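Good morning,

Both structures are done.
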Amino acid sequence: MHRFIRFTLAALLAISCASVNSEPLPYKSWHLGFSAPDYMEVWIETADIIDVQGQVFRRAMSGVASLQTPPNNSGDPRGWPKRIGIGSGKYVTGADLPKKIFVRWQSLVEPQTYKMEIDISESTRELMRKEEKAFCAADGKWITGYRQSIAVRLVPGGIVKVWVGGPCMTPIEIASIKAEVDPRGPYEGKSDGQYDSLSDVSKAYVDKFGVPYGSW
């Protein structure tokens, strides 16, 4: 009898988890974006996604992470922003909510190649499904929306933080990760160890002030 009860509870739990994962999204797509501190240029080789249905989306995002390069070394790359933006990226269409995100990128100021795996918890997916009211200071109006953006901040040394947010909503930090060095180097070893060049503005900053390790 006890064995039957345990089996029934396990079956109900499995059905419950399946129904959560199969809930239709309340929006057409979600956004994956990347940013970096001032002057700390990053090239994303690939960001691959596995959603809760087991679907794989390779190179869902690649390219430059958003950052500022103010002239005359007037920017400040140190520390974490008080409010993170969504970053440069793409809307992931045809996908359910994410389960894992795999990222490989080049930190051009070091230079170094990193890779990491971001686990997206069910509690984070619940935040992304939850309808919320938010006040938009720009126009003084209240809106109803969703946290349908995942923002990833990549900094030198392979330090990473991840937030989930939405229009006019305060982002919520969901992960802090130390990435590992990819021993193959840039482009999986296919570039003979050659990295892309820094922009002149970023190079001027780094040549004068260096990389502010320890501020992140």
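Second structure follows.
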Amino acid sequence: MTSTSTPLTSLTGTYTIDPAHSQIGFVARHAMVTKVRGAFNEFEGTGHFDGADPARSTVSVTIKTASIDTRNEQRDGHLRTNDFLDAPAYPEITFTSTGVEQLDDTHFRLTGDLTIKDVTKSLGIDFEYQGSATDPFGNQRVGFEGSVPISRKEYGITWNAALEGGGVLVGDKVVLEFEVSAIRQP
């Protein structure tokens, strides 16, 4: 049974992100006319949720940079180079929370440090609690969805190409998207 009305205090515990049922993705503007969507296929994360005092909650996520997937191998290969993520030199993107604020019954702001290519910036990500459920294997799950825009230039990702009619090939703004299913640990 899925419910967003489950009391948050009953959800207190330590959770592990289930990568088979979660997605960490992104959207970037391409050629000024369309959006390219992609995801990272390898990541792990843990968190502790304190339902009585959400401000005491914590989250830590590690993403394998080389797992970037835009459904185009040539583009993915370019994104793994020093022009973009430089996966050989910087194999991981990390996020470590520094605070959690409950905005209302189902909305939270997760503040933390995002590190890409050894550049760390503090940011806030708004998440919506999607509910909780006990799966057929007896696991207690919670779901959250959120997104945040970032400037790729702020993380040292500056490669671009000018377009003949004006503008650039790759937009600076990238929206990171999170669809998380996490399992409570015993």
